[in-house]
Amino acid sequence: MINRTLPILALLFIVFASPASAQQRDVPYWATIRASEINMRVGPSAEFRIDWVYRRQGLPVKVIRVVEGWRLIRDSDGTQGWVVARLLSPDRGAVVIGTGLAAMRDAPSASGKLKWKAEPGVVGKIVKCDANWCEFDAGGRMGWIEASRIWGSGEP
């Protein structure tokens, strides 16, 4: 009986220990909003008042401080507050910033063929970055966009 119990206990340890170790990251780091709705609070506890409610899954945020199960985040507008860590994803996302439409090209160059034009506020995933360009996936529409036109690229 003990021989069968040990593998099960080992598996449970791995399953439950992994999320805790994944939370041990150096700050700052990029993350995205995992849930369809997430409350931003003025302090790191459910006892603090809600200051803002995000309703945009996949929105990129910068984690700037870690306190137990809470993360102090900053968004592209500079708004910052505390959210529950489990409602964030380590996936790398970005949001189009600036004025006017941002060109999404077929190559990481201003001379690349224009594929799409993205409005400021469009949220997507960063596939990879190369010099001053990032491959950006906005709901299945992929292309290279200048890194200066998206918030969430580069070092946090």
From TrEMBL:
Protein name according to UniProt: SH3-like domain-containing protein
Gene3D superfamilies attached to this UniProt entry: SH3 Domains
The organism's place on the tree of life at top rank: Bacteria
UniProt KW keywords: Signal
InterPro entries, per database record: DUF1058 (IPR010466)
Range of residues in the leader sequence: 1-22
Organism: Allopontixanthobacter confluentis
